[in-house]
Specification:
Layout: E1 2-7, E2 13-18, E3 23-26, H1 35-38, H2 44-52, E4 58-60, E5 65-66, E6 74-79, H3 83-92, H4 97-105, E7 110-115, E8 127-129, E9 136-137, E10 140-146, E11 152-160, E12 162-163, H5 164-169, H6 174-178, E13 184-186, E14 190-191, H7 196-199, E15 203-210, E16 213-221, H8 229-237, E17 246-249, E18 267-272, E19 276-284
Parallel strand pairs: 6-17, 8-19
Antiparallel strand pairs: 1-2, 1-5, 1-14, 2-3, 3-4, 6-7, 9-12, 10-11, 10-17, 11-13, 15-16, 15-18, 18-19
The protein binds 2,5-dioxopentanoic acid and magnesium ion (MG).
Protein backbone atom coordinates (compact mmCIF):
# COMPACT_ATOMS: atom_id res chain seq x y z
CA UNK A 1 0.00 0.00 0.00
CA UNK A 2 1.42 3.39 -1.03
CA UNK A 3 0.71 7.05 -0.39
CA UNK A 4 1.51 10.04 -2.58
CA UNK A 5 0.74 13.69 -3.25
CA UNK A 6 -0.56 14.50 -6.71
CA UNK A 7 -2.13 17.18 -8.87
CA UNK A 8 -5.54 16.08 -10.12
CA UNK A 9 -6.67 16.96 -13.68
CA UNK A 10 -8.01 20.29 -12.27
CA UNK A 11 -4.47 21.00 -10.94
CA UNK A 12 -5.56 20.75 -7.28
CA UNK A 13 -3.05 19.26 -4.81
CA UNK A 14 -4.47 15.98 -3.41
CA UNK A 15 -3.30 13.20 -1.08
CA UNK A 16 -3.49 9.81 -2.76
CA UNK A 17 -3.55 6.12 -1.87
CA UNK A 18 -2.63 3.37 -4.33
CA UNK A 19 -2.71 -0.39 -4.05
CA UNK A 20 -1.43 -1.19 -7.54
CA UNK A 21 0.62 1.81 -8.85
CA UNK A 22 -1.89 2.31 -11.69
CA UNK A 23 -4.92 3.74 -9.84
CA UNK A 24 -4.87 6.39 -7.12
CA UNK A 25 -7.72 7.04 -4.64
CA UNK A 26 -8.21 10.69 -3.67
CA UNK A 27 -8.07 10.88 0.14
CA UNK A 28 -8.67 14.64 -0.01
CA UNK A 29 -12.35 13.75 -0.58
CA UNK A 30 -12.34 12.52 3.06
CA UNK A 31 -10.92 15.84 4.25
CA UNK A 32 -7.31 14.59 4.31
CA UNK A 33 -5.45 17.41 2.66
CA UNK A 34 -2.03 17.12 4.30
CA UNK A 35 0.15 14.05 4.02
CA UNK A 36 2.07 15.00 7.15
CA UNK A 37 -1.21 14.99 9.18
CA UNK A 38 -2.21 11.59 7.76
CA UNK A 39 1.13 10.11 8.83
CA UNK A 40 0.24 10.98 12.45
CA UNK A 41 -2.64 8.44 12.49
CA UNK A 42 -2.23 5.53 14.92
CA UNK A 43 -2.85 2.26 13.07
CA UNK A 44 -2.24 3.98 9.71
CA UNK A 45 -2.51 0.85 7.58
CA UNK A 46 -5.88 -0.25 9.00
CA UNK A 47 -7.21 3.33 8.67
CA UNK A 48 -6.10 3.38 5.03
CA UNK A 49 -7.67 -0.02 4.40
CA UNK A 50 -10.96 1.31 5.78
CA UNK A 51 -10.76 4.52 3.74
CA UNK A 52 -9.99 2.69 0.50
CA UNK A 53 -13.31 0.81 0.76
CA UNK A 54 -15.36 4.02 0.91
CA UNK A 55 -15.99 4.77 -2.75
CA UNK A 56 -13.44 7.57 -2.94
CA UNK A 57 -12.89 9.36 -6.28
CA UNK A 58 -10.12 7.65 -8.21
CA UNK A 59 -7.78 8.51 -11.07
CA UNK A 60 -5.44 6.60 -13.29
CA UNK A 61 -1.86 7.41 -12.24
CA UNK A 62 -1.16 8.25 -15.90
CA UNK A 63 -3.66 11.15 -15.79
CA UNK A 64 -2.27 12.89 -12.66
CA UNK A 65 1.04 14.60 -11.86
CA UNK A 66 2.88 12.96 -8.97
CA UNK A 67 4.48 15.46 -6.55
CA UNK A 68 7.15 15.08 -3.87
CA UNK A 69 5.45 13.33 -0.90
CA UNK A 70 6.50 16.12 1.45
CA UNK A 71 4.32 19.00 2.57
CA UNK A 72 5.72 20.36 5.83
CA UNK A 73 8.54 17.97 6.71
CA UNK A 74 12.20 18.99 6.81
CA UNK A 75 14.54 16.58 5.04
CA UNK A 76 17.65 15.33 6.86
CA UNK A 77 20.24 12.77 5.82
CA UNK A 78 22.48 10.19 7.45
CA UNK A 79 25.92 9.56 5.95
CA UNK A 80 28.62 6.89 5.88
CA UNK A 81 26.14 4.15 6.74
CA UNK A 82 27.45 1.75 4.04
CA UNK A 83 31.01 0.44 3.78
CA UNK A 84 31.02 1.57 0.12
CA UNK A 85 30.33 5.16 1.17
CA UNK A 86 33.06 5.12 3.83
CA UNK A 87 35.64 3.85 1.30
CA UNK A 88 34.64 6.40 -1.36
CA UNK A 89 34.88 9.34 1.08
CA UNK A 90 38.24 8.16 2.43
CA UNK A 91 39.58 7.97 -1.14
CA UNK A 92 38.28 11.42 -2.12
CA UNK A 93 40.07 13.20 0.73
CA UNK A 94 43.34 12.57 2.63
CA UNK A 95 42.42 15.49 4.80
CA UNK A 96 39.08 14.07 6.04
CA UNK A 97 39.72 10.33 5.72
CA UNK A 98 40.05 9.62 9.44
CA UNK A 99 36.78 11.46 10.18
CA UNK A 100 34.86 9.13 7.82
CA UNK A 101 36.68 6.10 9.20
CA UNK A 102 35.76 7.05 12.76
CA UNK A 103 32.12 7.95 12.13
CA UNK A 104 31.40 4.63 10.42
CA UNK A 105 32.20 2.81 13.69
CA UNK A 106 31.13 5.46 16.18
CA UNK A 107 27.97 5.14 18.27
CA UNK A 108 26.73 8.54 17.03
CA UNK A 109 25.94 8.51 13.27
CA UNK A 110 26.63 11.36 10.87
CA UNK A 111 23.35 13.27 10.36
CA UNK A 112 23.07 16.51 8.42
CA UNK A 113 20.34 18.90 7.31
CA UNK A 114 19.43 18.44 3.65
CA UNK A 115 16.36 20.47 2.61
CA UNK A 116 13.42 22.60 3.59
CA UNK A 117 10.17 21.01 2.40
CA UNK A 118 9.44 23.74 -0.15
CA UNK A 119 12.84 23.22 -1.78
CA UNK A 120 12.46 19.49 -2.37
CA UNK A 121 12.56 18.61 -6.08
CA UNK A 122 9.53 16.66 -7.33
CA UNK A 123 9.73 13.56 -9.53
CA UNK A 124 10.42 14.62 -13.11
CA UNK A 125 11.81 18.06 -12.16
CA UNK A 126 15.47 19.01 -12.51
CA UNK A 127 17.99 18.06 -9.84
CA UNK A 128 20.92 20.47 -9.63
CA UNK A 129 24.65 20.35 -10.11
CA UNK A 130 26.54 23.39 -8.83
CA UNK A 131 28.24 25.56 -11.44
CA UNK A 132 31.27 25.94 -9.11
CA UNK A 133 31.77 22.17 -8.69
CA UNK A 134 33.70 19.81 -11.00
CA UNK A 135 32.66 16.43 -9.57
CA UNK A 136 28.94 15.87 -9.05
CA UNK A 137 27.06 12.65 -8.33
CA UNK A 138 23.58 11.49 -7.35
CA UNK A 139 23.23 9.49 -4.13
CA UNK A 140 20.33 7.00 -4.34
CA UNK A 141 19.00 6.44 -0.84
CA UNK A 142 16.18 4.78 1.05
CA UNK A 143 14.33 7.51 2.99
CA UNK A 144 12.52 6.96 6.29
CA UNK A 145 9.23 8.83 6.56
CA UNK A 146 8.93 9.74 10.23
CA UNK A 147 5.93 11.22 12.02
CA UNK A 148 6.19 13.80 14.83
CA UNK A 149 6.73 11.01 17.39
CA UNK A 150 9.75 9.75 15.45
CA UNK A 151 7.91 6.57 14.37
CA UNK A 152 8.55 5.16 10.91
CA UNK A 153 5.26 5.66 9.06
CA UNK A 154 6.70 4.56 5.70
CA UNK A 155 9.58 4.54 3.23
CA UNK A 156 10.27 6.60 0.14
CA UNK A 157 13.16 7.26 -2.28
CA UNK A 158 15.65 10.12 -1.92
CA UNK A 159 18.40 11.53 -4.10
CA UNK A 160 21.10 13.24 -2.00
CA UNK A 161 22.81 15.16 -4.83
CA UNK A 162 26.41 15.85 -3.83
CA UNK A 163 29.48 17.77 -5.04
CA UNK A 164 32.35 15.44 -4.22
CA UNK A 165 35.19 17.87 -5.00
CA UNK A 166 33.78 20.45 -2.56
CA UNK A 167 33.14 17.80 0.11
CA UNK A 168 36.62 16.31 -0.43
CA UNK A 169 38.45 19.64 -0.18
CA UNK A 170 37.43 20.23 3.43
CA UNK A 171 34.83 18.60 5.70
CA UNK A 172 33.71 22.07 6.80
CA UNK A 173 32.42 22.59 3.25
CA UNK A 174 29.89 19.75 3.64
CA UNK A 175 26.83 22.06 3.83
CA UNK A 176 27.86 23.62 0.49
CA UNK A 177 28.48 20.20 -1.08
CA UNK A 178 25.12 18.89 0.11
CA UNK A 179 22.60 21.71 0.48
CA UNK A 180 22.17 24.00 -2.49
CA UNK A 181 19.46 24.76 -5.03
CA UNK A 182 17.73 21.56 -6.32
CA UNK A 183 20.07 19.27 -4.35
CA UNK A 184 17.35 16.99 -2.95
CA UNK A 185 14.69 14.98 -4.79
CA UNK A 186 12.19 12.76 -2.97
CA UNK A 187 9.33 10.50 -3.99
CA UNK A 188 6.96 9.86 -5.52
CA UNK A 189 5.60 6.96 -3.44
CA UNK A 190 5.60 6.21 0.29
CA UNK A 191 5.29 2.49 1.03
CA UNK A 192 3.45 2.20 4.34
CA UNK A 193 3.05 -1.45 5.18
CA UNK A 194 6.62 -2.80 5.31
CA UNK A 195 8.64 -3.84 8.34
CA UNK A 196 12.34 -3.05 8.66
CA UNK A 197 13.10 -6.73 8.02
CA UNK A 198 11.15 -6.55 4.74
CA UNK A 199 12.75 -3.24 3.72
CA UNK A 200 16.20 -4.76 4.29
CA UNK A 201 15.45 -7.26 1.49
CA UNK A 202 14.93 -4.46 -1.06
CA UNK A 203 17.49 -3.50 -3.69
CA UNK A 204 18.42 0.09 -4.55
CA UNK A 205 19.43 0.62 -8.16
CA UNK A 206 20.51 3.72 -10.03
CA UNK A 207 20.98 4.33 -13.76
CA UNK A 208 22.36 7.54 -15.27
CA UNK A 209 21.51 8.07 -18.94
CA UNK A 210 23.26 10.52 -21.25
CA UNK A 211 21.65 11.13 -24.65
CA UNK A 212 19.64 7.94 -24.15
CA UNK A 213 22.67 5.74 -23.35
CA UNK A 214 23.40 4.35 -19.88
CA UNK A 215 26.65 5.98 -18.67
CA UNK A 216 26.58 4.39 -15.22
CA UNK A 217 24.41 1.92 -13.39
CA UNK A 218 24.82 0.27 -10.03
CA UNK A 219 22.92 -1.54 -7.34
CA UNK A 220 23.09 -2.33 -3.65
CA UNK A 221 20.89 -3.93 -1.03
CA UNK A 222 19.18 -2.01 1.77
CA UNK A 223 20.42 -4.85 4.00
CA UNK A 224 23.96 -3.45 3.66
CA UNK A 225 23.11 -0.45 5.89
CA UNK A 226 25.21 -0.73 9.04
CA UNK A 227 22.75 0.89 11.44
CA UNK A 228 19.15 0.03 12.32
CA UNK A 229 16.37 2.40 11.26
CA UNK A 230 15.18 3.16 14.84
CA UNK A 231 18.80 3.96 15.75
CA UNK A 232 18.99 6.58 12.96
CA UNK A 233 15.55 7.98 13.83
CA UNK A 234 16.39 8.16 17.53
CA UNK A 235 19.54 10.23 16.88
CA UNK A 236 17.63 12.59 14.57
CA UNK A 237 14.94 13.21 17.19
CA UNK A 238 17.33 13.41 20.15
CA UNK A 239 17.25 16.94 21.64
CA UNK A 240 15.19 18.04 18.62
CA UNK A 241 11.50 18.22 17.71
CA UNK A 242 9.72 17.89 14.36
CA UNK A 243 6.07 18.91 14.84
CA UNK A 244 5.27 17.87 11.25
CA UNK A 245 7.54 14.82 11.18
CA UNK A 246 10.67 14.53 9.05
CA UNK A 247 12.18 12.65 6.13
CA UNK A 248 15.52 10.96 6.87
CA UNK A 249 17.68 9.77 3.95
CA UNK A 250 19.65 6.75 5.16
CA UNK A 251 22.90 7.10 3.18
CA UNK A 252 24.22 5.79 -0.10
CA UNK A 253 25.74 2.44 -0.96
CA UNK A 254 26.16 3.08 -4.69
CA UNK A 255 29.00 5.36 -5.79
CA UNK A 256 29.96 5.89 -9.47
CA UNK A 257 33.65 5.42 -10.35
CA UNK A 258 35.95 8.37 -9.61
CA UNK A 259 36.18 9.46 -13.28
CA UNK A 260 32.43 9.96 -13.49
CA UNK A 261 30.66 13.30 -13.06
CA UNK A 262 27.09 14.31 -13.92
CA UNK A 263 26.41 16.66 -16.82
CA UNK A 264 23.37 18.86 -17.54
CA UNK A 265 20.63 16.89 -19.38
CA UNK A 266 21.70 13.55 -17.86
CA UNK A 267 18.73 11.62 -16.47
CA UNK A 268 19.00 9.94 -13.04
CA UNK A 269 16.66 6.99 -12.42
CA UNK A 270 16.56 5.47 -8.94
CA UNK A 271 14.61 2.31 -8.26
CA UNK A 272 13.92 0.71 -4.87
CA UNK A 273 12.27 -2.65 -5.28
CA UNK A 274 9.59 -2.24 -2.58
CA UNK A 275 8.77 1.35 -3.42
CA UNK A 276 9.05 2.35 -7.10
CA UNK A 277 11.05 4.73 -9.26
CA UNK A 278 12.25 8.33 -8.85
CA UNK A 279 13.50 9.92 -12.06
CA UNK A 280 14.92 13.42 -12.57
CA UNK A 281 16.82 15.21 -15.33
CA UNK A 282 19.98 17.12 -14.30
CA UNK A 283 20.26 20.91 -14.58
CA UNK A 284 23.12 23.28 -13.72
CA UNK A 285 22.38 25.78 -10.93
O1 LIG B 1 29.87 13.14 4.83
C1 LIG B 1 29.58 12.73 3.78
C2 LIG B 1 28.23 12.45 3.31
C3 LIG B 1 27.88 11.00 3.33
C4 LIG B 1 26.63 10.69 2.60
O2 LIG B 1 25.87 11.53 2.18
C5 LIG B 1 26.29 9.27 2.39
O3 LIG B 1 27.02 8.36 2.84
O4 LIG B 1 25.27 9.01 1.76
MG1 LIG C 1 24.16 10.68 1.04
Amino acid sequence: MKLCRFLNPKKQVCVGLSRDDTTVFDLSAEGIDRLSSLLEFEGLVSQLTRLSGQGLPQYRVAEVTLLAPVDQQEVWAAGVTYLRSKKARMEESDFSASAYDRVYDAVRPEIFFKSLPEKVVAPGDGVGIRRDARWNVPEPELALVLNSRGHIAGYTIGNDMSSRDIEGENLLYLPQAKTYLRSCAVGPWITVNASEAEARQWTIGVAIRRAGKVEFSGETSVGQIKRTFPELAEFLFRCQSFPHGAILLTGTGVVPPDGFTLQPADVVTINISGIGTLENPVVQV
